[in-house]
Amino acid sequence: MRRFLYVAGLPVLLLLGWFVLSSGSENFYAPPLRDILRAFVDTWTPERLRADVLPSLVRLFAGYVLAALLGVALGVAIGLNRRLRATVEPVLEFFRAIPPPVLVPVIMLFAGIGDGMKVIVIVFGCVWPILLNTVEGVRAVDGVQLDTAKAYGVRGAARIRTVILPSASPQIAAGLRQALSIAIILMVISEMFAASNGLGFTIVQFQRSFAIPEMWSGIILLGLLGFALSLLFRLAEGRALRWYHGLRDAQRRS
Amino acid sequence: MLEVQGLRKVYSSGGREVEALRDLTFTVENGDLVCLVGPSGCGKTTLLRCIAGLLQQTGGTVTLDGHQVSGPPPGLAMVFQEYGRSLFPWMSVRDNVSLPLKQKRVPRQRRDELVDKALAAVGLAGTESAYPWQLSGGMQQRVAIARAVAYEPSTLLMDEPFAAVDAQTRADLEDLVRSLWQRLNVTVLFITHDIDEAVYLGRRVIMLSSSPTVVQDEITVDLPAERDQLHTRADPRFTELRTHVYEQIQKAKRLSR
Amino acid sequence: MLEVQGLRKVYSSGGREVEALRDLTFTVENGDLVCLVGPSGCGKTTLLRCIAGLLQQTGGTVTLDGHQVSGPPPGLAMVFQEYGRSLFPWMSVRDNVSLPLKQKRVPRQRRDELVDKALAAVGLAGTESAYPWQLSGGMQQRVAIARAVAYEPSTLLMDEPFAAVDAQTRADLEDLVRSLWQRLNVTVLFITHDIDEAVYLGRRVIMLSSSPTVVQDEITVDLPAERDQLHTRADPRFTELRTHVYEQIQKAKRLSR
Amino acid sequence: MSSRSRGTALLGLAGLGGLLLVIELLPRLGLVDDAYLPPTSEIAAALADELGTAAFWQAVGDTLTGWAIGLLIAVAAGVVVGIVVGAVPVLRAATASTIEFLRPIPSVALIPLAVLLYGTDLGSVLLLVVYASFWQVLVQVLYGVADVDPIADETARSFRFSGWARVRHVLWPTALPYVFTGIRLAASVALVLAVTAELVIGAPGLGKLIAVAQTSGAVPDMYALIAVTGLLGVAINLAARVFERRSLSWHQSVRGEVPA
Amino acid sequence: SGDGGGGTDSNGVDQVKVGVIPIVDVAPIYLGQQKGFFSNRKINLTMESGQGGAAIVPGVVSGQFQFGFSNFTSLLIAQTKDVPIKAVSAGVSSVGEQGKDFGGVVVNANSPIKTAADLAGKKISVNTLKNIGDTTVRESVRKAGGDPSKINFVEMPFPNAPAALAGGQVDASWLVEPQLSEAKAAGARLVASNFVDAAPNLSVAAYFTSTKLQGEDADLVKRFTEAINESLAYADAHPDEVRAVLGTYTKIDEKTRAAMILPKWPAEINEASVQTLADLGAKDGIFDGKTPDLAKLLP
Ligand SMILES: Nc1ncnc2c1ncn2[C@@H]1O[C@H](COP(=O)(O)OP(=O)(O)OP(=O)(O)O)[C@@H](O)[C@H]1O
Ligand SMILES: Nc1ncnc2c1ncn2[C@@H]1O[C@H](COP(=O)(O)OP(=O)(O)OP(=O)(O)O)[C@@H](O)[C@H]1O
Ligand SMILES: [Mg+2]
Ligand SMILES: [Mg+2]
């Protein structure tokens, strides 16, 4: 009950505030929440969800998983090797600073215009927080822990699996969490190019065709989607990092 | 055989230069049990890390069985002074102890056996599934010891391994180390602050001077190989030896002032 | 006056339930120096944390000067068993020691004086600008001690504060604690595994049973108030007392088996 | 030390050089059509032309202004909100769902709103930049605050540090490495958003130049401008790294004694 | 006048912001500015360039911009959604000659697609879906006897389309200048002039303002309309000056500027052709079943 209050309290307040403040809105681009909610019900029918949201989710999932694998793998390599880090860091920073909308055409040159391109765009955008956090997490592994592993001949893959990754995992989790919402954002951006379905595409279409309440309802759907995914993420994180949360909570009043 | 030749180590980080070890030379025969004593901050941990190949020395050499040490040699186990930080908080006690064995590709069954035995030997049977941070300081230290013991190393380096346990447990653990040493013919290097412990445990005791560190003195403990807590400590020769060591350390500290 | 009444603490984390303290009752007069001894893992650290108001007990009460303890009371200083982790790695030794004083709004000059004196007293003059991780284990522990000493607390809680220092330094630090106690009339609660130390230092020694923990026994150390390392330890009464304590602890351990 | 950092710089240059070489070779070897991805040399020539124009420098200035102001606001807000929310469990619990809801809303979806409020003024760019980069900092700070070592925190509590002192002396240094990662993430997200906003809304800056080059089919110019964006990113990261090394000299990731 | 960026200074000169897309179509307004057609009428013009309607229409509605430039299909869609805007003048028109228009559908030289009818069932790129591009291309196919319902349109910005076409990612591309010339130079072949197929002398785009400004400052709107009409006429008569002014706000290189086909800029909106666009849009279902009310939109 209390948890529910925490989860729902603030959003309900904000929605109420929005509802009341917007109820008399004359502004074409900021319609009353009432209209938006009505549009929400009308727009996001099960067929619509299947036709537009499902493909988006599939691409999102594929891109996110790929980015996670790539980010962690690269991050470990870069974090462990100072020379490698020095060599590739500027190149990575270079690409990181390029806005995806201008990069999409280049990606299109190599990856075509199908789902592959969209997945690559998602990977390209959301790999950075994972990569950066992994690098920093790996670099911050406790020296005594590393020495212990070394002394006992724990090396190679086992060292990475049993020492480095777990130790860096809280920070990797931070990166994964950041990446999740960026992946959603990139899903939308990727669907602005060469798409003919998808949630992002639909929202942009609504915007272009001046279906403003529908557009807002799409944005709300994005938010809900992000919220649902982050709940799932929190669940997974809670399981994977049980030791960490336990350790952190251990001495706090129990 | 372990040979330390003119070992020197200077730490330089952030403008601060500390000569932790100036010039250390000594040898340890295979299967020997050597205790190292010396004032706090004299470089004992530094020495152990160099021997384990975890730290690059500034000068001199460390050779083990004729090979120059550049990384941790196989069959080496180490109990770190920072026992708390040397346990992996994301693994249960059992996993912490068995991880090195897994690395050594000890078959599963034998592994479980070794782990159970080692944990029982340090008085921790029943805590296998706990995480290290659910244990008291002394218990954590004993997990670290159990890990080293279960590994059945050929060289065992221990850095103040009994600092956090009570007197009774300490006595038990001393006997555990001696029995392990006798049973497996391990080469043991043991750092302690407790002079009685050094004399009780060691076949030799090496005394280090305070910083900048050299070997101050060295004795062979000519007590019988079969020792026990009651009789050995009552032996007049024991008292003689411990007084000698005590005086040397006093001298080392005085010199440095 | 510190009163511990029926204190009980059960840890429950991740399905594991451990009754660390079962039922502890004792009192400590203001200005008393009490040593706590007990087997490893019996709950000494847990007890100290409850007294410091850092841990919520499961049952019973802790009162200090009539007020129930719910958070760290003013004028309290604590030396943690995990000395390494209780120092802030991002601060120099000097800053680590002086930060609590700053919090107490001690004027700058007085602060510097206290810090210098405390560092000198633990034998660390000259390391002010080093970071904790540039120091040896024993040195780190002494920084933590210096921090507590410089604070001039009215209640001082120490959890195995000398575990990582050599015998000679340990003797010096013991005398430091006694002189601080006499000079400032501090209430000291001191956890140690070294029975000689407990008897040498304390005005009283409280012995805890092993887990689940109750007070096993308690003695008043009727040695003269003026103690020194040579004569006090040679005193036959000293030997008597330490033997008593030793036996009690032996008994505590045996009972638990 | 200095020779080591020189080595680092050389390796970094080698990495960038490798990238340039690849881009030179791809079209030269006919792997891609040079009408769509021109070789490095042509991009460099276009870049040289651009460097000579005042409009270019004006645009760089505009972009950097939007970036810097936006980043500053985002970092300040992210750090303050992150610490307050992270340190007060009740707040954390109460805001978690709202934060998760707002975070994945793409800045691009806010473009109409931005234009509505600010037209093509700096305000539009700032709105998008701040919105996007704020979350980057916030999430990092939240994780950083959660990473405080319980013993360190207990030490502070036992000495009765005030709330502020605990934040200042324990929470903040622990969270600092996370904050730096957050700032580095935010810095490039801010740059990306500043350029994107200019690109789509048409606020003055590099993005607008890119848009013009793009619609005009001036491919080498477009890549030259994109390269400038990337190089800005590299420069920003370099500055952040130097700053980080200074502030985190005590941290494991920086101090790491060279092992054997 | 307007509340956002606009305003009138002490000399009675109005500050006017116009949201445009920096392409060939809006050359007249730049030219007119150069020639002083606006300052003559006490209008100080600032061009704000955005990428497409996403930024321009809200800007005009909220008064951040006083005027904007948009294609008619978008304006018709806006009208069916009751967006408070109104066209004030013509913007740009098709050349009206088969094969010589400034926009068209191209395929690769070796493509099996020979006529518009062959486009049925193929993948065609347009810059925005459900807009003027796909409705008019469908009409081309329809007129050539193909089945327009089978076309698979994908959305792709004009600048990226030639690469996608050359790379075989799409079968055909609907392009406008300068990409059209560029693609043709690279060997692409024109198979349909969709604007011409849709209607004779099709009015493609218009300048528009918000109904609010129309009501509050009719004088400004009138002056702007006069100035833009003069500009359109001037541009239509002076193609060389148009090609020159293109160099000031785009990066189209000189060769392309010289070679590319310029659109027509008649001062009058061809209302019949706008009606055709509305009919085509209705046929393709882009108005959600509503019928645009031309009277409300056109000046
Ligand atoms: N990482 C480091 N950077 C700089 N100086 C260091 C570092 N580690 C140790 N030192 C210095 O080297 C000297 C020896 O340290 P070491 O840890 O070897 O001492 P020790 O003999 O193990 O002491 P203790 O008994 O207190 O553990 C000390 O003066 C210490 O300050
Ligand atoms: N965070 C925790 N979660 C669960 N159990 C804990 C936790 N901390 C301590 N314990 C358990 O409580 C008991 C007492 O621990 P405590 O640290 O108080 O012992 P101690 O007397 O200080 O031992 P030592 O002398 O070894 O430091 C132990 O059995 C330990 O396993
Ligand atoms: Mg040491
Ligand atoms: Mg303890």
UniProtKB/TrEMBL annotation, chain A:
Belongs to the binding-protein-dependent transport system permease family. It comes from the Bacteria. It is a multi-pass membrane protein. The gene is ssuC_7. PROSITE patterns: ABC_TM1. The chain crosses the membrane at residues 61-81, 102-131, 179-204, 216-236. Keywords: Cell membrane, Membrane, Transmembrane, Transmembrane helix, Transport. It is found in: Cell membrane. This is Nitrate ABC transporter permease. InterPro entries: MetI-like, MetI-like_sf. It comes from Paractinoplanes deccanensis. Residues 53-237 form the ABC transmembrane type-1 domain.
TrEMBL record, chains B, C:
Residues 2-235 form the ABC transporter domain. InterPro entries: AAA+_ATPase, ABC_transporter-like_ATP-bd, ABC_transporter-like_CS, ABC_transporter_ATP-bind, P-loop_NTPase. Pfam families: ABC_tran. Gene3D superfamilies: P-loop containing nucleotide triphosphate hydrolases. Keywords: ATP-binding, Nucleotide-binding, Transport. Coiled coil: none annotated. This is ABC transporter. It comes from Paractinoplanes deccanensis.
From TrEMBL, chain D:
Residues 60-244 form the ABC transmembrane type-1 domain. PROSITE patterns: ABC_TM1. It holds the Pfam family BPD_transp_1. The keyword Transport applies. It is found in: Cell membrane. Its main location: membrane. It is a multi-pass membrane protein. Keywords: Cell membrane, Membrane, Transmembrane, Transmembrane helix, Transport. CDD domains: TM_PBP2. The chain crosses the membrane at residues 7-26, 67-89, 101-119, 125-148, 169-202, 222-243. InterPro entries: MetI-like, MetI-like_sf. SUPFAM superfamilies: MetI-like. The keyword tRNA processing does not apply. It comes from the Bacteria. Belongs to the binding-protein-dependent transport system permease family. This is Nitrate ABC transporter permease. It comes from Paractinoplanes deccanensis.
